[in-house]
Amino acid sequence: MLSSYGLAVFLILFAVFIVLGFYGRRWRKGDLTKIDEWALGGRRFGVFVVWFLVGADLYTAYTFIAIPSSVFSIGAIYYYAVPYVAVTFGIAMWAMPKLWKVSKEKGYVTASDFIKGNFNSRSLAILIAFVGIIAELPYIALQIVGMFSVLTVMLYGIGNIKFIEDVSLIIAFIILAFFTYFSGLRGATLNAIFKDALILLSVAIVIVVALMNIGFSKAFTNLPLKYYHILPLQVNAYWSLFLMSALALYLYPHAVTGSLSAKSPKTLRTSQSLLPLYGVGLALLALFGILVRGDSSAMSFLSNFPLASRGTYVVPGLIFYTLPSPLVGMAFLGIFIGGLVPASIMAISQSNLLTRNIIKEIKPNISSKVETQIAKISAVLFIFLALGFVFMFPLSYSVQLQLLGGIIILQTLPSLFLGLITNRLNKYALMAGLLAGLATGIYWMEVANKFGPWTTTLLPINNSVGPIFIGFLALMVNLAIVLIGSAIALPFSKK
Amino acid sequence: MSSNNSNRKVVSIIAGILTFMPFLFLIMVPTYVKTQPELGGLPFFYWYQMLWLFLAAILFFIAAVLWNRFGGD
């Protein structure tokens, strides 16, 4: 268990964080009962704030817990997160300023608003909003796994593991729900800066200490080849994972929200272009999955947990056994709010979609005060729903939660990204493609997992191609239907 | 006006090439599936891709600045 000294650091920093969250509500004051203010922070952030805000979405439980866990449990293939971060902003720096401009001109707040205006289709917009909400649920669940893992390591030793895990899950849920309800995006932004400072500091300290104490040569000793680099048969899995993740990131509703809060398209482009730098910490954290093997006390701690959940405790475990307890408290808080802030941003964007693009479509004349109230309550409800996804995959494979969200959200790519480039796509073809992509995606998930419990998002093709990420295959089905359908419909359209 | 337009075109091509480089090099996965040369005990596979994070930021940043200045919004 964490010493009282370490615990005190954790609690004091958490108190600072909460105060900042509430201060954030008044920072660059706006009317928080209006949804634009609660959810977009008023569209006035500059290069560095946007850099922090969008980058903070990267430093989540995905980075701290899921990727290191998979590198530890499975091998080098889950280092795909690094090329993913390297290329994703190359897409975003061109697509997002364009979306920003259209959004500003027409008063859009969500991607679904854009779809409705661009394709003049209410049903496509509602469908896209619905898919966005669903895709965020496993991603929020992953954040809860992160918060939960830190609490479990902190409380380790006060009772049996089952009891600690239950208590940790309940605490994580309650804090997340309260935080989201009371602070909104503006609070989350100021918190993101605090969180990032804390996290970058922790990562830097741990990597220096770990490298001095362990070193890569020692950690790699006696490891199988799959930890040195990917295997020849994993090449197709590797590029499909990183390229699809790169395309998926900016389709998520929460990423759109962060980008729309920039002050101008140029500001947005500049901050996007610098975001690959954020990936350096991610790469180092991924390597913790290997470094931990060189630390015998951390490894013996991990052996207390079954293989199915062991990976999730790699980073907290390594921190616990390499740093003095006050620094452990600081790093743990970093990881904890590293799940909390993104989860909150995600739930806010879900509730944004629900109120603006679903409820208001059906009942257009609700007041903005009622709208904000519905948004706040539904954000908490979505967090509760996300809890149902937490144990969908064994904890060691929690990265699959993010990849599952990816398979789902990728199906909105034709409507969103192609919609920015051309207006010749047919809305019915887009709907058919989206639904077919979702259906084949889920079907291939079942095939890849032999109709049993889900542990993978890779579908084995044959002995020369190897496995491929299902998100890629489903997107190809989707795109084929959209393009063929639009080509057939083109001669019949009025324009 | 026409020189402005051709400037814009040149800038968009340069920015496009700069943006495309990280994609091109990273998609060629078999070129970096190897252990040697190591860097401080770290296999090539890991440090090579980490290096691309810096290179991507530099290339993207130049592309962004060029476009923001000469290209438009």
Q: Would you summarize the structure shown here?
A:
By secondary structure, chain A is mainly α. Chain A has helices at residues 4-24, 35-40, 47-58, 61-73, 81-106, 111-119, 122-155, 161-213, 216-220, 235-249, 253-260, 265-274, 279-291, 296-302, 307-310, 314-322, 325-362, 368-387, 399-410, 413-421, 427-448, 470-489, and strands spanning 458-460, 467-469.
Please explain how this structure is put together.
In chain A, α8 packs across α18 and α17 (325-362) packs across α18 (368-387). In chain A, strands 1-2 form a two-stranded antiparallel sheet. Chain A has a single domain, classed as Sodium/glucose cotransporter (Up-down Bundle), CATH 1.20.1730.10. Chain A is built from 22 helices and 2 strands. Chain A is mainly α and 495 residues long. Mean pLDDT of chain A is 84; it is low at 28-35. The radius of gyration of chain A is 22 Å and the shape is globular. Helices cover 74% and strands 0% of the residues of chain B. Chain B has 2 helices and no strands. Chain B has helices spanning 2-27, 44-71. In chain B, α1 (2-27) runs antiparallel to α2 (44-71). The longest helix of chain B has 28 residues, at 44-71. Classes of the chains: A mainly alpha (495), B mainly alpha (73).
**Residues in helices of chain B, as a percent range:** over 70%
How confident is the prediction overall: mean pLDDT of chain A? Answer: 84
What characterizes the major β-sheet of chain B? none
Q: Please, how many helices of chain A? A: 22
Strand order of the largest sheet of chain A: 1-2
Most extensive interface, residues per chain? A-B, 44 and 34 residues
Summing up helix and strand content along with how strands pair, one would put the structural category of chain A as mainly alpha
State the separation between the terminal residues of chain A, measured CA to CA: 68 Å
Low-confidence stretches of chain B: none
Could you name the CATH homologous superfamily of chain A? Sodium/glucose cotransporter
Radius of gyration of chain A: 22 Å
Run of helices and strands of chain A: HHHHHHHHHHHHHHHHHHHHHEEH
Q: How many β-strand stretches of chain A?
A: 2
Q: Order of helices and strands of chain B, N to C? A: HH
- Our Rg estimate of chain B from Cα atoms comes to 17 Å
CATH architecture of chain A: Up-down Bundle
Shape annotation of chain B: elongated
Which spans of chain A of ≥5 residues are poorly predicted at pLDDT below 50? 28-35
